C-alpha cells in the first residue's frame, strides 16, 4: 500500500491529542500527515515513511525488504513536492535526522552558478524581479534584496486561508526580526494596498507589508522592475503562496497554500542565511 497524499487539513485539537505520541513529533506535517503516520504505524512490516519541508509525505508498506520500502516511501514523497525528502521512519524505528532537516534547502548555489540561473519559480531559478513599494510608498525592486534571504509571500485580506495563517507568520517574523540578513516581503494581490494594510492594522499584526501595486479585485497582474507586468497566476497558482530566496535571489523553497507551523522554519532560514550567498 502506498500513500502519496499531501493536503493542508486540520483535525480538531482533541483528535490530534489522541494520535500516538511519536506521530505528534513529525516536524512540519499538517494533521492529515499526522493521520497518515498513524496509518503507517498500523501497517504491515517492511514499511517506511518519508517527509519533506512544506508538509509533503509519502509512505510504503508491504515491501520485500526495508531498503525497498525506504525507496518507495521516498519516491512517494518526491511525487508530491519539489523539496528534498528525508526518511522519517523505517518499520518501528524512527530514523529522523533532526540536524539534517534544516539543511534540506541546500547545498546552495555559488555565485558562479547563480549568475547562470534562468528566470522562474522552481528551486534553483531566479525569481522574476518584481517592483515593490514599501509601506511609505517608496519604490524598489526585489533584486535589490540580494545579499539577504528573502521570504516573499503573496496574500490578500479577502482570502480566508491567508488571514488564518498570518499570526503564525508573524511569530516567525518576530523570531528573526533582529537579523539584517533575512527580509520578509508580504505582497497583497487583487486588492489595493490600503485595504490590506487596514486589515492588518485592525488585527494588530506587526509585519512588513509591501505594496504589489494591485489596484483591486480585477487587477490580476504583478508589476516588474522593468515596467512590464506578469500575471499573478504565473507566480502563485493559489493564494496564499510563499517562496524563500537565497542570498543570490534563487528560489530554495516554494509552497502553494497555507504553510503549516511557520515558526518551525526559523532553523531553515538561519541555515540559508549562514550558508547561501557564497
Protein model, in words:
With 278 residues, this protein is of the alpha+beta class. It has 2 domains: 2-101, no CATH class; 111-275, Glutaredoxin, CATH 3.40.30.10. It is 28% helix and 21% strand. It has 9 helices and 14 strands. The chain has a 5-stranded antiparallel β-sheet with strand order 1-3-2-4-5, sandwiched between helices. A 5-stranded mixed β-sheet has the order 10-9-8-13-14. The longest helix is centred in the middle third of the chain and has 17 residues, at 160-176. It is globular and about 60 Å long.
Number of strands: 14
Main pleated sheet: 5 strands, antiparallel
CATH architecture label of the largest domain: 3-Layer(aba) Sandwich
Q: Helical stretch count?
A: 9
Helix content: 25-40%
The CATH superfamily of the largest domain is identified as Glutaredoxin
Average pLDDT figure: 91
What is the CA-based Rg, rounded? 20 Å
Estimate the global geometry from the Cα principal axes. Answer: globular
Q: Strand percentage, roughly?
A: 15-25%
Low-confidence stretches: 1-24
Query: Which class best fits the helix and strand makeup?
Result: alpha+beta
* Lateral strand order in the biggest sheet: 1-3-2-4-5
